[in-house]
């Protein structure tokens, strides 16, 4: 495409950033076969956390058992709660786990990361949880953790946080810190072949959100820019293909890599208002995270673009929205608004739900807005949004 990429600086501030990720990333079709050798590097007792579809974890357990490795499985009922993570930590400690494995979507991986870090850091999760807890720093390196995604959306295998549901607060909040990065991220696109179209679509929109938000973030940096731009291109050309043709190897590879890149980007450049709102919505309604992101993305982009034009018309972030539109639409002569239209068409074509379908009601709006304003993700949004603007987002997404 014959167009220049917007500068990697956001505004006129000097360039300074930090980049952290998992100690080792293995990517490619067939790398799942290397798991037993990886486990042996840490011992012979693997505590395996899987999603609610326990059958998907059978292949992993059979593979480890055949290699004479001892396993204990902990299946999650859904997205991990604080109580479930406490129970899993107790079981892992009794089992004498030498390594914790998260096998599944973001829920299983986040739970595994939380268990691994709570095995070595004493006390209650509330000591370390942000927003609803005491937000104390995690000071002791975590027990070894191997993250194996079977969906293509969250990028949790390379992020430095673990999202847990604090049921009593009706909120999703994070444990956060560099020790939450897994020792190994093992990403095999073949593991996503059996994902149904709806789940492929929801997780794919999560990945797209996590590529767009860091790219326009006030914390964007040259390293994350590269991941975002390449990942956006891959989602644009392959998400609908992966939904329509689940065994399309090239499309599944694109989506697995885009998801990985989204995790690398968000962990180092932050997110924005989509995730700032998604946290309280998920905590309130129990809706799947990817579904919430897909319902919000277009409206948040529209509101951000309008706010930037009004209050920061010379912002680098505004030029970045124009560049995103060019990548998504595949044309040079488009405005920033074209990315909003493109995402709306995509979510409609994939039959993804709106907020009303996820259990959100108008009477929830005030609470959701109040909680979103203190969410950590909101801090990286390209421009601070007002309560009125956030209500407009919810109205447009409803």
Largest sheet entry? 6 strands, parallel
Q: Rounded to an integer, what's the Rg over CA atoms?
A: 20 Å
The amount of helix comes to 40-55%
Q: Mean pLDDT score, rounded?
A: 92
Widest sheet: strand ordering: 1-8-5-4-2-3
* Overall SS class: alpha/beta
Number of strands: 8
Share of residues in strands: 5-15%
**What global shape is seen?**
globular
- What string, H for helix and E for strand, traces the elements in order? EHEHEHEHEEEEHHHHHHHHH
Tally the helices: 13
Oligomer: single chain
The termini sit apart by 35 Å
**Unreliable residue runs:** 7-11
Summarize the structure.
The protein is α/β, with parallel strands linked by helices.
Descriptive overview:
By secondary structure, this protein is an alpha/beta fold. The protein has 13 helices and 8 strands. It has helices at residues 35-40, 58-66, 82-95, 106-118, 197-216, 222-244, 249-269, 273-285, 289-311, 316-329, 337-349, 365-372, 387-397; strands spanning 24-27, 45-50, 70-75, 99-104, 145-149, 161-166, 171-176, 184-187. Residues 7-11 have low confidence and may be disordered.
Features:
398 residues; alpha/beta; 6-stranded parallel beta sheet; two-stranded antiparallel ribbon; 47% helix
Topology:
Layout lengths: L23 E4 L7 H6 L4 E6 L7 H9 L3 E6 L6 H14 L3 E6 L1 H13 L26 E5 L11 E6 L4 E6 L7 E4 L9 H20 L5 H23 L4 H21 L3 H13 L3 H23 L4 H14 L7 H13 L15 H8 L14 H11 L1
Parallel strand pairs: 1-8, 2-3, 2-4, 4-5, 5-8
Antiparallel strand pairs: 6-7
């Amino acid at each position: 495409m014959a167009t220049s990429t917007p500068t990697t600086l956001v505004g006129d501030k000097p360039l300074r950033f930090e980049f952290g990720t998992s100690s080792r990333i293995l990517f490619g079709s067939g790398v799942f076969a290397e798991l037993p050798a990886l486990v042996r590097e840490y011992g012979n007792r693997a505590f395996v956390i899987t999603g609610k579809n326990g059958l998907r974890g059978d292949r992993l357990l059979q593979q480890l058992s055949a290699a004479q490795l001892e396993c204990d499985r902990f299946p999650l009922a859904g997205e991990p709660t604080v109580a479930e993570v406490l129970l899993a930590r107790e079981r892992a400690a009794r089992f004498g786990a030498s390594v914790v494995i998260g096998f599944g979507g973001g829920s299983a991986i986040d739970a595994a990361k939380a268990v691994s870090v709570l095995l070595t850091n004493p006390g209650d999760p509330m000591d370390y949880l942000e927003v609803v807890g005491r937000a104390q720093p995690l000071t002791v390196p975590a027990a070894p953790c191997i993250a194996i995604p079977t969906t293509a959306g969250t990028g949790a295998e390379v992020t430095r946080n673990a999202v847990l549901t604090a049921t009593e607060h009706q909120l999703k909040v994070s444990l956060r810190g560099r020790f939450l990065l897994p020792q190994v991220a093992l990403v095999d696109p073949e593991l996503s072949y059996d994902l149904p179209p709806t789940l492929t679509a929801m997780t794919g929109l999560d990945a797209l959100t996590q590529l767009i938000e860091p790219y326009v973030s006030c914390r964007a940096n040259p390293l994350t820019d590269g991941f975002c731009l390449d990942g956006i291109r891959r989602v644009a050309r392959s998400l609908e293909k992966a939904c329509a043709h689940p065994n399309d190897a090239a499309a599944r590879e694109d989506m697995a890599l885009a998801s990985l890149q989204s995790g690398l980007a968000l962990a180092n450049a932050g997110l924005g208002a989509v995730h700032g709102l998604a946290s309280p919505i998920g905590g309130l309604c129990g809706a799947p995270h990817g579904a919430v992101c897909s319902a919000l993305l277009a409206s948040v982009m529209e509101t951000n673009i309008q706010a930037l034009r009004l209050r920061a018309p010379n912002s680098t972030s505004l030029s970045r929205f124009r560049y995103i539109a060019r990548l998504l639409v595949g044309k040079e002569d488009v405005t920033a608004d074209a990315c909003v239209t493109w995402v709306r068409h995509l979510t409609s074509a994939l039959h993804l739900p709106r907020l009303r379908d996820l259990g959100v009601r108008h009477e929830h709006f005030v609470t959701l807005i109040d909680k979103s304003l203190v969410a950590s993700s909101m801090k990286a949004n390209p421009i601070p949004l007002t309560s009125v603007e956030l209500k407009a987002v919810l109205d447009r997404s409803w």
